[in-house]
Protein 1
Amino acid sequence: MKDKEVKTRMKRGFWKPEEDLILKNCVKTHGEGNWATISEKSGLMRSGKSCRLRWKNYLRPNIKRGMMSEDEKDLIIRLHKLLGNRWSLIAGRLPGRTDNEVKNFWNTHLNNKRSCRGKRKHVKSKEANTQSTQGKMQEYPAETVSNQEVATKTVLDSWIEEMQDFNCSLLSPLTMNNMPFLEDEPFIPILDDIVLLEAFTSTGKEAWNEIQPFL
DNA sequence: AACGCTATCAACCGCTCTCGC
DNA sequence: AGCGAGAGCGGTTGATAGCGT
């Protein structure tokens, strides 16, 4: 009841530039993570959750905004194939991108289920190239792929192959309950804790170091 | 020019996880 | 061990920009 009262008194909706400024200063003063304190001390009448979200998705330093590069798109597709809807994990591999941004990008550009919901009447010219590459991640038309992209794809291919080999040796057979292994949610935590850690600390780390200059 | 429709994305909601007591 | 508070995550919603008719 009390919570509800507090909730209804909280301000909602889009953030104004002046609110952003106040939040930035508060984070500087109280530190990132103390959202309850920030919410209280800022006087913004925003919930701690709301402050956290705004900071994480917009105000945090080194946030990269704007269109996803081809490399980023490719990485998202591949990591999603590997991890499923673990947006924070995927975003963690894309420097400067947020989980919300990756999630939105997936839902609007790459998620076939959603994009097939209604046929697009129009396609913005800037998106034309994106649309044409959907659902064709195994094919790399030579005329559209730069040397950097080839390098990135080669590294990623071998890296993902290694990780999948590792998965198979851990939990073969390849399928469980007639479902592809990687789509089987109960095994995702294993991917997080063991496979990903290993992948990014040994051979995977090397692969990641090779990819990073292109991002 | 006006209207309808769709795509986009910021923000919210509810659930789970983590940590301190 | 159990509980509560706060943080984090993924799914969903709603406002709005912009294109087609």
Protein 2
Amino acid sequence: MPIAAAQGPNGSAAPVPVVVAPQPDGSAVMCDLAADGTRLASAVRLNDFSSAIADRERSDRVRWVWAAADGCYPDLLRAGLRLARCHDVALVEALLLGRDGRHGEPATLAGAWARLRGERAPRRAATPSGSAQQALFEPTEPGLPEGAAVLDALIAVYADQLAKIGADEAQARLRLLAAAESAGALAAAEMCFDGLPWRADVHDELLAGLLGPRPPRGSRPRRLAELAEQITAAFGGRPVNPDSPAQLVRAFAAEGVSVPSTRSQVLRDVHHPAAPLLLQYKELARLHSAHGWAWLDSWVADGRFHPEYVVGAVVSGRWASNGGGALQIPRVLRRAVVADPGWTLVVGDAAQLEPRVLAALAADRAFAEAAAAGDLYAELAGAFGGDRSKAKVALLSAMYGGAGGEAGQLLAVLRRRFPDAAGYVEAAARAGEEGRVVRSVLGRACPQPSAAWRSLTASASSAGAGASVRARGRFTRNFVVQASAADWALVLLACLRPRLTSLAGPDGAGRPHLVFFQHDEVIVHCPDALAQPVVAAIEAAAQEAGRLVFGATPVRFPVTTAVVSCYGDAK
DNA sequence: TTCCGTTGCGCG
DNA sequence: AAAGCGCGCAACGGAA
């Protein structure tokens, strides 16, 4: 079966794999490979890493095979390059290790090279934080040969990875996953480089409006100080630090109010004059500490927020972020995300992604037909007495393993009306409870249970065994859905990148930038005139992703798009 | 002083 | 009776 990811648009020839390694002196060694990863020519050495890559990228359809995009690509971006595709040895190695139940072993090129030769993988070299890049350009990465000989390791490991993928029972999907994960690494580096448009002045005004003017470093903003005083007064003048849960619990106890914790959820039901004040305080204090002026100082420069996305850091295949909390931007701050003059933001959000993914995964006919519509929950409402919200609760409970409140009854309805969908997640839960692993649709494996879990659950009588078994079941139940949704989103990203590139001017001028990706949501920053083509590109990429990941299915994956100048205006 | 586990809350 | 999934970050407070 031809693999779509290995085949260009219009049936053009598959890209040529070219293995490349930057050298400490700024030069590069590279070598053309055959489709099966074997050496096609002898290695060449080129004086300048980025110009060597640029020349080749211009003249050929290349898949760059390298140790890791997060090491190589930022330099190339700074040099003004954009690459179409790569094979990220480290990310693919992590996928393959996970598939073999070996999560946690070093997934670096050096680790893979050592395993290939039956040696112990070198422990990851201790590097200063965030300097994967530095490590790569160290003259001698531990465990790797120096100079052009590093290509031997790269070529051998790449060929081995291709062989492992080819030997998998679901090789086409695994190959797609490897390509999408690698494309994700390119997208992540580009997003970090380009940055999310961020108006520091708008952010500052917003903070000042809620907290009072910017205070000296280290002291409480006016509004928080006022609330803290009022809280102290509400506790009869006994000084209490509202940031300290322990002090608050004691202060409530002294007033004869027993609280298990100081969570907002708990405080909402506490009848004491301090409770509503604390709720206000907590909300504002959180904004101040997590996304206040200090955040603005560290993360926003030149009108851009430059987060670092970490591909492959989450077991489900979702991205993580490192510094700046890129994936936890509070809704109120979306006001500060404003397009440049003459540019616009296209915000695309995959509607009800996870239940749709479940529908496609389970191939539940009745469910899948409902998922052919725009509002899945509304479509399912009929099965739940016409109540859309009940349909939603039932679905979320099925996917998360919740069974509280009325969820139990709603699950029973779900099981009766959509037996295959319910059966799919329940089979995943059972697998987890039995200590087995599950996989996403494209073959990303969940981690095996820990040794501690195994020994705890080995005897049903030991305390906590039942709870641990059920927790593992909820994890695997959710994993199959969340990880498959992540597969879909990653493929969407991989399909969207080339479409956006093709909208750029001849010299790359006015190129639409992907500037944000959050699980099921993308933001593209583009010139005003390109807004509609970008909308079309996102929708087309979503449909392409659905087809590539799930094949023939009636399930649709609609993306809600909004063309706005301010992120706060989307939705 | 630094380190680390816990608490709590933001996002999906 | 309490409880669903996955993350990152900041502050606290005890331990080293």
